[in-house]
């Protein structure tokens, strides 16, 4: 199978010829929403700081003295003014500082990335550029070129190193992300409408995923 290569001005620059089995394995897989959901949940769980916490009775400052006698007052028995039924008291079963991260096997993560790439191909939302070098570094110029191509929400994945001027020009444009190939991930691919891979990115991803 062949992937057509264009440049940022939409001019043709040849093709990338991939073996049928390689193309089918990486770009031609059936779209499994369960795999994509598992991987996205795994990524977002790792990002959660988990620093939310409420005060338990041991965290409340105050006296430990029993408020009043156990019997004879006519009131319900109480052991501490720091108990949750009193104002300023503890919270029962509240959140505590913890990690929300959970495990996901490498095999599943790899398969989910292939599925995400395949979903973009199936939707006709995959574009291959010959590269990102040659950008002026000006946000205005890049915005105009993306508008000409009709790209409003796009993720650009470059080779091992992102072109510095292109990254500078893109970083202030809403809904435009730029990543090196080693940073390619399911969540960022799915959250943008169009996926742009450079020729170098395709070569490295094929080598990484085949």
Automatic annotation (TrEMBL):
Keywords: Ribonucleoprotein, Ribosomal protein, RNA-binding, rRNA-binding
Gene3D superfamilies: 3.40.1370.10
Pfam families with a match to the protein in the record: Ribosomal_L4
Ranges of compositional bias, category Polar residues: 61-81
Region Disordered: start-end pairs: 51-81
Domain of life: Bacteria
CC per GO annotation: ribosome
Subunit structure: Part of the 50S ribosomal subunit.
Function: One of the primary rRNA binding proteins, this protein initially binds near the 5'-end of the 23S rRNA. It is important during the early stages of 50S assembly. It makes multiple contacts with different domains of the 23S rRNA in the assembled 50S subunit and ribosome.
Similarity section: Belongs to the universal ribosomal protein uL4 family.
HAMAP family xref list: Ribosomal_uL4_B (MF_01328_B)
Protein's recorded name: Large ribosomal subunit protein uL4
């Amino acid at each position: 199978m062949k992937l057509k290569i264009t440049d940022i001005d939409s001019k043709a620059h040849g093709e990338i010829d991939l073996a049928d089995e390689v193309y089918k394995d990486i770009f031609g897989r059936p779209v499994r929403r369960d795999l994509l959901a598992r991987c996205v949940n795994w990524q977002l769980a790792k990002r959660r700081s988990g620093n939310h916490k409420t005060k338990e009775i041991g965290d409340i400052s105050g006296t430990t003295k029993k408020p009043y006698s156990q019997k004879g007052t006519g009131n319900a028995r109480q052991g501490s003014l720091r108990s949750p039924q009193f104002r300023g008291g503890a919270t029962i079963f509240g959140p505590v500082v913890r990690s929300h991260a959970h495990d996901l096997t490498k095999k599943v993560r790899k398969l989910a990335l292939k599925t995400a790439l395949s979903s973009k191909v199936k939707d006709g939302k995959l574009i291959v550029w010959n590269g990102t070098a040659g950008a002026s570094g000006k946000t205005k110029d890049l915005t105009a070129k993306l508008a000409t191509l009709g790209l409003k929400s796009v993720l650009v994945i470059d080779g091992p190193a992102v072109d510095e001027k292109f990254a500078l020009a893109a970083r202030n444009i809403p809904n435009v992300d730029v990543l090196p190939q080693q940073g390619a991930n399911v969540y960022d691919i799915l959250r943008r409408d169009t996926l742009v891979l450079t020729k170098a990115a395709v070569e490295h991803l094929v080598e990484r995923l085949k």
